[in-house]
Amino acid sequence: MLSTNRESPPPAAGRAAMKKELPDQFKDHRHVWVFMELERDQVHPVSFELLGEGRKLADKLGVQLAGVVLGPPGEATWFAIAEAFAYGADLAYLVEAPLLADYRNEPFTKALTDLVTNYKPEILLLGATTLGRDLAGSVATTLLTGLTADCTELDVDADGSLAATRPTFGGSLLCTIYTLNCRPQMATVRPRVMAMPPRGNNKIGRVIQHKVSMIEEEIVTKVLGFLSDGQSATANLAYADVVVAGGLGLGAVENVKLMKKLARTIGADYGCSRPLVQKGWMPADRQIGQTGKTIRPKLYIAAGISGAIQHRVGVEGADLILAINTDPNAPIFDFAHLGVVTDAIRLLPSLTELFTHRLSPHSRDKLAN
Amino acid sequence: MHIVICIKQVPDSAQIRVHPVTNTIMRQGVPTIINPYDLFALEEALQLRDRHGGEVTVLTMGPPMAEDALRKALTYGADRAVLLTDRHFAGSDTLATSFALSRAIAKIGEAFGTPDIVFTGKQTIDGDTAQVGPGIAKRLDLLQLTYVAKIVSVDINGREITVERRSEGGTQTLMSKLPCLITMLEGTNEIRRGSLDDALRAARSQIVKWNAADAGIEDLTKCGLRGSPTVVKRVFAPPERAEKAEQIDTAEKTPRDLAEELIAGIFLRQPALESELAFDGE
């Protein structure tokens, strides 16, 4: 059923399959691992969010937290290791090889699977990014273990099993999933679902280096090129401090620019709900929600968005949600902090104008004096 | 060339209702659709066939009613449809699902020719895991190309394929070999309207129906609940937020008045924002 594309809902509990006796071959699996996602010398911030969660799990279990770094020889991998320590890892596993320079499924699957087989973690967490999902599926299938996608909550129960909670059916339901009788217990978490932990000053820990048993000639897939999204990118949307988004309440494609103008005025990034992508008014990588991006801004302004459950799961982490919608019964008012029942098309230009006034250097000077 | 595409019949998730007491999905009356992401993959498969010749076989695993989704895929122009259905598959997680599908694809290869490419959508809208595609690739030892935005070129004779793959913050161009498994991103290629001929052919087509044994699966412990390492222990509705939004009274106010009140409300709740918002005046 749920987590995992199940065919029909099994009874929720109390089945014979729920036996808790771990087979002997898995009894020496110990410690919590976080895969440090390193691409083009950058560590994806989801890795730090996962270290924060991993630290809590490791402390509850009384085990160590490890960061796993795969990459080409050079400074970037060691920087990633230092960052892993700064965000709470006790130790790091490192596989350095030129063939790990760009992400490719074959060598990364091989390297991570070898590490797991050799060093036996009980929990392995990865970011639910394009890279993390590509890799996690291959690794879990190779190891024939359970993998729970897009978790929103991770915990350990009384007997030390990982309890991974995830939304399903577009967020209509949540389910808590266990991996029984197999190790490691694997889970992916989307960027921004978990809070960013504070960065500590620790830069030191044990580093275990492992060689990858593969050579470039064995790898079929070659990377011919990479085109960065660059500055025009939506790469920032998930990590933006302020986000403005529009939904069907904008009424017409030309009104999208009212929303964009407000965003530009207050230095916000912008996005939309699913229907706008379906209508072709906005590109898919601007979509916020279950099948789009998860955001965690300090301020989120939702203009003409009804707030279906699929959207809600992507924005609940915002500190302050302001909702503008003509329908007083729109679900968005159930989870927004501040709401106004009015037409977003009429309100957006006034908001832009008054923010301009309020934020202009001139009026800021006046306020300061 | 021979292309196999895996599709899934899913409830139209925009219309999902949850039973308030039992927290189960109320499927009655909920329309089912072909998983939307699968349609992008299907269109891609049909275009490749049209360009290079050959056949497209569409495969689904599900209850007997999933036949409707296959019939629909035939009306779009797929050449053959296979329904993998067996009560032993009930409760399959992604590992068990990829096992059953990979066996069925191997069987399709024996019966109708080895596939050059296996397609799936990037994920389903009900399970949302994006794990079954990579699972099938690993089990069949196929090269794996996920989140493909565009197939740049396919050289059937040279067995080479070049694709553009979305990654975090950019697009990778990858060159790989056939046979491979591709999970397709939502793209610009909307599914075609099938022709009248396709519709007539779909109505007359026999759908191939296989149970576990037909698909060459002897070890039933790898299927369904028994073959699933993950177990759903608890299902519950998302908690309600305790407080609803504080509403700004709109009576007899101009948009300007409302904007003023909202901005005051924002800075009252988040005072630090006032100095943090980047001003981009014109």
From TrEMBL, chain A:
Keyword set includes Lipid metabolism: no
Cofactor binding remark: Binds 1 FAD per dimer.
InterPro entries: DHS-like_NAD/FAD-binding_dom, ETF_a/b_N, ETF_a/FixB, ETF_alpha_N, ETF_asu_C, ETF_asu_C_CS, Rossmann-like_a/b/a_fold
UniProt keyword list: Electron transport, FAD, Flavoprotein, Nitrogen fixation, Transport
GO biological process per UniProt: fatty acid beta-oxidation using acyl-CoA dehydrogenase
Positions of the Electron transfer flavoprotein alpha/beta-subunit N-terminal domain: 32-223
Pfam families the record matches: ETF, ETF_alpha
Quaternary structure, from the entry: FixA and FixB form a heterodimer.
Similarity comment: family membership: Belongs to the ETF alpha-subunit/FixB family.
Name of this protein: Electron transfer flavoprotein subunit alpha/FixB family protein
UniProtKB/TrEMBL annotation, chain B:
UniProt-listed CDD domains: ETF_beta
Domain Electron transfer flavoprotein alpha/beta-subunit N-terminal residues, every copy: 22-219
UniProt cross-references to PROSITE patterns, sorted A to Z: ETF_BETA
One Gene Ontology molecular-function label: electron transfer activity
Keyword terms: Electron transport, Nitrogen fixation, Transport
This protein's record includes keyword Electron transport: yes
Family listed: Belongs to the ETF beta-subunit/FixA family.
Subunit structure: FixA and FixB form a heterodimer.
Primary role: May play a role in a redox process involved in nitrogen fixation.
Protein name (Swiss-Prot/TrEMBL): Protein FixA
Organism: Rhizobium sophoriradicis
